[in-house]
Amino acid sequence: MVGAAPHAGFWPSAVPVAAETPQAHGITALDELRAHCPNCPVRSLCLPVDLDEHAMGRLDRIIQLRTTVRRKAKLYRPGDRFNALYAIRLGTFKTTVLAEDGCQQVTGYHMAGEIIGLDGIGDERYTCEATALEDSEVCVLPWNEIDRLAADMPELRRNLYRVISRDASREQSMMLLLGSRTAGERLAIFLLNVADRYRDRGYSSCEFVLRMTREEIASYLGLKLETVSRLFSSLQENGLLQVQGRAVKLLDVPRLRRAVSERD
Amino acid sequence: MVGAAPHAGFWPSAVPVAAETPQAHGITALDELRAHCPNCPVRSLCLPVDLDEHAMGRLDRIIQLRTTVRRKAKLYRPGDRFNALYAIRLGTFKTTVLAEDGCQQVTGYHMAGEIIGLDGIGDERYTCEATALEDSEVCVLPWNEIDRLAADMPELRRNLYRVISRDASREQSMMLLLGSRTAGERLAIFLLNVADRYRDRGYSSCEFVLRMTREEIASYLGLKLETVSRLFSSLQENGLLQVQGRAVKLLDVPRLRRAVSERD
DNA sequence: CGACTAGTTGAGGCCAGTCAATGTTGGTGG
DNA sequence: CCACCAACATTGACTGGCCTCAACTAGTCG
């Protein structure tokens, strides 16, 4: 039941949305031979964290599908039936919602090792849209199997809770940001946050390439793109960082941190 | 094990924080005789929703404690060990976090039938502070028992997921609000939201008493209290509502809705 | 090449914040 | 009961940060 033709069960969900191409949202299915949890580079950031060998094996076995998602392709859209979480193996995603006035607002910036799709859990439908910002790879975690597995694996359950609530607390700090910070503080906090996440993944924490346009960053931070552009320029003038399009090099992290915390 | 002295297991958590009085944060324990899920007025909004008789009985049995929380008393504080969720039976709570600059920001306004304490799930510690805005009553849902029960009750699990993710999506729409709405729109949306929730609870949806001060409302909406005050006055001048301190009467809901949606 | 997308920079206006004075409400104690 | 006080709320005048509109540059792709 799990062994043969495993892709059929949960994958079609995405297909009906794709109007023109047979491949939903530009996603390409891969053979399942390669990547597995035990040797995954972002294992320590993902669902398997702290699971013992046996538990990780059980989890790994229900992940039948690892797929690539090309830049600009959508992993899921609002209204799509929820039947899987996605673990980002490689690459970057943004999540967006569209306000009733029709314009998309960016609600999240997600890097390798993070789980997305959590917004679908509540109503069995996704509420966000997840779009790859570069060519990426995700593991598909079929929800009903995850849920079944979680029923008799307390450790997995705990990890699930943690993932879900980490997501919630991220949104909460975002609320704080949007509610009480100036434009400059918002950008600084964003950059420091991204830097930290690169560090967690073993990359340089002060030199990286942002995968979002100025407009997307602005939307994420509740600003306008011109403001973000100006801020980058002014931070550069002040010697806090060096910026070349989307490539950013933080030159003075301590001063950036102070710029964030020392007011009031 | 569950029958005798059931309060001892999870309750002390709140006590150590109370510096002076033996009663933590001003909370008074009640006898457990009265209220039970099956006859709870907010059952249909709470965890038991859609559970059959047997399931509700099992859930009800682990709720050993219903307590009153007096106005201004805190149900939990950031850093308190997480070991229970709280279902609001009666009354209103706000949740706040304190930004590193020391000032509290209101992150939630919670009414009867809602579950609070979810922010503690992830790290086994609460991250918010929950304060009663009027004398209130809550049911204490000991987390490890809830979790154990959820393990073999798929329906309860689904309800839990729903509650958690409803919380997350509330925060997400809050992000949207803070990121892209004018002050007037924010207040209108807030009022309409509160009105809807009163309706859900069987109360008048256009005449109610807000339990927050202008300052708390402002903090919640990412504004300043003077702005909120001015907005109330101007909405009143325009005949959209009538306001007397915290008592609000919505006079023209359709126009309020239009004020929110018709821009852009 | 032209068309398009992404980014930068400038000038001006407005919304909401800031500072400050005054009014209102509710609780407490004489 | 009233006087008093503190907390809450309202209103005004002013300011400044961010948005708006607009022009211009740089890079990419057909």
List keywords for this structure.
homodimer, 264 residues, alpha+beta, Jelly Rolls, Arc Repressor Mutant, subunit A, 2 domains, 5-stranded antiparallel sheet, 4-stranded antiparallel sheet, 7 helices, 22% strand, globular, DNA-binding
Could you please describe the fold and organization of this structure?
Chain A is 36% helix and 22% strand. Chain A starts with 26 loop residues before the first strand and ends with a helix. With 264 residues, the first copy, chain A, is of the alpha+beta class. Residues 1-23 of chain A have low confidence and may be disordered. In chain A, helix 2 (143-151) crosses helix 3, helix 4 (183-200) crosses helix 7 (253-261) and helix 5 packs across helix 6. In chain A, strands 1-2-9-4-7 form a five-stranded antiparallel beta sheet. In chain A, strands 3-8-5-6 form a four-stranded antiparallel beta sheet. In chain A, strands 10-12-11 form a three-stranded antiparallel beta sheet. In chain A, strand 11 (241-244) and strand 12 form a beta hairpin. Chain A has helices at residues 53-62, 143-151, 154-180, 183-200, 214-221, 225-237, 253-261, and strands at residues 27-29, 65-69, 74-76, 84-90, 92-98, 104-111, 115-116, 129-132, 136-142, 207-209, 241-244, 247-250. Chain A has two domains: 11-172, Jelly Rolls (Sandwich); 181-261, Arc Repressor Mutant, subunit A. Chain A binds chain B through residues 97, 99-103, 105, 107, 118-119, 121-123, 127-128, 147, 150-152, 154, 157, 161-162, 164-169, 171-172, 174-176, 178-180, 219, 221-222, 261, 263-264, and chain B through 97, 99-103, 105, 107, 118-119, 121-123, 127-128, 147, 151-152, 154, 157, 161-162, 164-169, 171-172, 174-176, 178-180, 219, 221-222, 261, 263-264. Chain A binds a DNA duplex (30 and 30 nucleotides) through residues 182-183, 213-215, 223-227, 229-230, 232-233, 245.
